[in-house]
Amino acid sequence: MSAHAEELVRVDGLVKTFAVRNAWGRKTGTVQAVDGIDLTIRRGETLALVGESGSGKSTLGRCILQMEEPTAGTVTYDGVDLTALPRAERAAHHRSMQVIFQDPFSSLNPHRTALQNVLEPLLVLAPGDDVRERAVAALAAVGIEGDAVHRRPRAFSGGQRQRIVIARAIAVRPGFVVCDEPLSALDMSIQAQVTDLLLQLQRDLDLTYLFITHDLSVVREIATRTAVMNRGRIVELGPTAEVFASPQHAYTRHLLDAALTADPVRARARLERISARPDPVGLEPEGSALVEVSPGHLVLR
Ligand SMILES: Nc1ncnc2c1ncn2[C@@H]1O[C@H](COP(=O)(O)OP(=O)(O)O)[C@@H](O)[C@H]1O
Ligand SMILES: [Mg+2]
């Protein structure tokens, strides 16, 4: 198999700049949310994207999904440059790329039943005589069955609501799913169940995941490779076990250090202390680039 057949998503030179405005709407500056990223996501893998809040993870995910127009650079999906396609043709790819957000409450329509919520995107993206059966099957695959499919979101627990969101994403049979902090709003005990569900669906449906999180413990369990992001750049990328066992970039070590404090209250205090430092890691040197330090393990230098 060629390298190209192996890669499902390819990002080249991606930049996303936002205008910063004051309370009166006047532009006072810009923020470089994504600052020149090259990345490939391989078919069938889970690539974890980790980094502190504000590092640009969601923006990168949204640019890949075409929910955000990149300022520069290209996004290729299954060999097709999405950024070069006319808007109308891009829509055909919306089915292949789905997203699961952190907050199941705001992602579901509260006035519609679980079944109606799953039917909605199916009717738009993959219509057919059997949409209802497909919606019911997707809900069954996440454990929502029988009369429960006719309940509205508020009748479900947080974990069940996230299951409905997952059913809606998989119902259209995507190839690629961006999971953006999908567990962060859930209780610890529920997190493990939803993680297992995501892994099982990946096997059953041949899914490729970009898994965005600031929780490193889950990354170890599920990610094939891990990319570490700081200030809009990827500072380290490699096989998950290797990045955790032998972190090469100061920022990766700083993240792992904060996460290693087992007590969550102390970990938070420690992270806040580190974040409060004016510049915990320092700016990347001018002209820095990802350098391969061992096979498949890249570090920004
Ligand atoms: N729509 C937007 N308008 C202006 N600034 C934004 C917008 N979205 C994100 N940003 C800024 O871009 C940076 C990266 O944000 P984000 O991608 O959400 O980071 P993360 O997901 O890692 O927390 C932050 O400084 C954030 O404030
Ligand atoms: Mg985010």
TrEMBL record:
SMART domains: AAA (SM00382). It comes from the Bacteria. The keyword ATP-binding applies. Keywords: ATP-binding, Nucleotide-binding, Transport. Gene3D superfamilies: P-loop containing nucleotide triphosphate hydrolases (3.40.50.300). The keyword Signal does not apply. InterPro entries: AAA+_ATPase, ABC_transp_ATP-bind, ABC_transporter-like_ATP-bd, ABC_transporter-like_CS, Oligopep_ABC_C, P-loop_NTPase. Residues 9-256 form the ABC transporter domain. GO terms for biological process: peptide transport; transmembrane transport. One of its GO terms (molecular function) is ATP hydrolysis activity. Belongs to the ABC transporter superfamily. This is Oligopeptide transport system ATP-binding protein. It comes from Microbacterium kyungheense.
